[in-house]
Design goal:
The protein has about 210 residues and is of the alpha/beta class. The chain has a single domain, classed as Rossmann fold (3-Layer(aba) Sandwich). It is built from 7 helices and 8 strands, in the order E-H-E-H-E-H-E-H-E-H-E-H-E-H-E. Strand 5, helix 5 and strand 6 form a beta-alpha-beta unit. The longest helix has 14 residues, at about 70-85. It is globular, with a radius of gyration of 17 Å. The structure holds S-adenosylmethionine (SAM). The site of S-adenosylmethionine has 22 residues, from strand 3, helix 4 and helix 7.
Length: about 210
């Protein structure tokens, strides 16, 4: 049985528009509460949003931008952010590729998180996977020197593709080298997909890549 979607926001509505992000850049979405320069963390595909909520509550000194292609998930998350009374989160309904590629000044992002992006396991759908060289280049260019691209997947085949694409990006350096990924990251917040996959006994693959200083 489908549940009725609630549209009211029980507090401040921190959703912002892609039109503003394109026109003025993502840092402007935090005005007037935040004045640049400030450390900006971007999560792409936040899903149910627990990870972003917990991280933002733990780090009031950082500004968090949640990007999610599903507008329903953005609406539900806007209700959660309002209820949690977080003032350091802004939400965009849009594609991560568009945000990193067109709305973020070069070298201006502290961290990009991408947790359990869809693996599209069928070969015919492989072109839909987020981790493609062009996308990884956009993420690398968006990061400030030393900034981190932090990625998780439960899917072994996708992990190998992610490894290949990240390794092939000269602007990024593998924090865990010579290992391609690690199985656990101490202190990491669990996402809801991760909880499900761990219950299924699946292996985790965590990548951390740092933007090199050129
Ligand atoms: C498998 S879910 C993982 C959700 C969450 N990160 C977690 O770990 O629980 C992938 C999420 O990414 C979103 N998504 C897929 N492609 C996207 C894109 N290009 N940009 C932003 N979000 C995307 C989907 O709508 C979905 O919510």
């Amino acid at each position: 049985m489908s549940r009725t979607l609630k549209y009211d926001i029980p507090g401040t509505d921190w959703r912002r528009s892609m039109a503003d992000a394109y026109e003025f850049g993502v840092h402007s979405l935090f005005a007037p509460e935040w004045e640049p320069p400030f450390p900006l963390v971007v999560e792409i595909g936040f899903g149910r949003g627990e990870f972003l909520l917990e991280l933002a509550a733990k780090h009031p000194e950082l500004a968090f931008l949640g990007v999610e292609v599903s507008w329903k998930r953005v609406l539900k998350m806007a209700r959660k952010v309002a209820r949690a009374e977080l003032e350091n989160v802004r939400l965009l309904a849009g594609k991560g590729e568009a945000v990193l590629g067109d709305c973020v000044p070069e070298g201006s992002v502290h961290t990009v998180w991408i947790n359990f992006s869809d693996p599209w396991p069928k070969a015919a759908h492989a072109h839909r996977r987020l981790f493609q060289p062009e996308f990884v280049r956009q993420a690398a260019v968006a990061l400030e020197p030393g900034g981190l691209l932090r990625v998780a997947t439960d899917d072994r085949v996708y992990a190998e593709q992610i490894d290949e694409v990240l390794n092939g990006e000269p602007l990024l350096e593998n924090v865990y080298a010579p290992e391609p990924w690690v199985r656990e990251v101490p202190g990491r917040i669990m996402t809801s997909y991760e909880r499900d996959w761990r219950e299924d006994g699946r292996d985790m693959h965590f990548f951390d890549y740092a933007r090199v200083t050129t």
